[in-house]
User: What shape does this take?
Amino acid sequence: MNLRLNSFAPLTLILVMAGCHGGGGGESPEDAAAAREAALAPREVRLITAEVVEEQPSLQLVGEVRAFDTVSVAPEVAGTIDAVKVEVGDRVRAGQPLAEVDRSTFKIYLQQAEANLAAAQADLDLAEKGLERKRDLLSDETIAQATFDQAKAGYDLAAARVLGAEAARDLAKRNWDKSVVRAPAAGSIMNRHAVAGQWNDVGQMLFELAIGDTVKVAARVPSEWAPRLSGLDGFDFTVGASPTLYRANLYSVDPMVNESSRSFEVVGVAKNTAGTLRPGMFATINLEAPESQRSLWLPVAAVATSDMSQVMIVSDGVVTVHRVQVGRRVDGRIEIIDGLDEGQPVIADTAGLQRGVPVTILEDTKNS
Assistant: This one.
């Protein structure tokens, strides 16, 4: 068996050597050395500086119209809804009836309370007359003091009953008045939950009312726009397909950037005297920076954006990287918001380069 295996050994060695040097597919030591030398040779790069643009940046956003303030309208008495007098979208004035709650029952309570008050008042009048007669008789010493005291107690009791009857009447009248649900302020009906025939408890919401003649207009703004909005006092906007241009005064700017969307909210307020701006409408918002600003622009090839945005510079003959914050992309250029000084040279094309790669500068120009 060993002799048989050994008989194939020279052939195996020949095949292995042929695989290493034969067939023209191998590489000579000279070629391998040349390849290693080429791989280690410095890369030729071209340097450029960012283009400086003087501009007044503007941005178009899709936002929404919101109610400035809303209030929930609920009945102050329980009962069945007899009538609903408004619909969603209706503009209402302060005190305008919105719905009625079973007024017939509260009318009966009021009539009963008024009758009880009239009876109590009659008893008081009678007690007062009796007390006056007893006072005259007491002065003539015709009756005993105890008899007068009893008459006085009867009068005081009748007076107390009148006070109780007046309170009951006032409560019944209050419930009668509150059986009509009224608008607490002028505004527009946003939601209606009232349905004729349904039972409603005290405090159960019937309507949602957007009050006042002012609306909010809000949009989310990309985080890179934060430095440009310093001094902003308002913005223009349109709604729907209407060409009418409205003006909103700045109301608030969200102090924090949302981590998931990398944006913050800007809110303006606009007059809505004509009622044409309704909460829930989409708005096209035009934001314009208050002052002209200098911005830096580089070709897209000069910015590496695989993991984080960065530019590459040459330091002591090797590539180093600088992290930058980028903004808009326009016509093959990208805006550098932060991380790069004006006039600082960067490598024009970052493809295939990484930190520490040796380079030689092929050309140094001011712009691409």
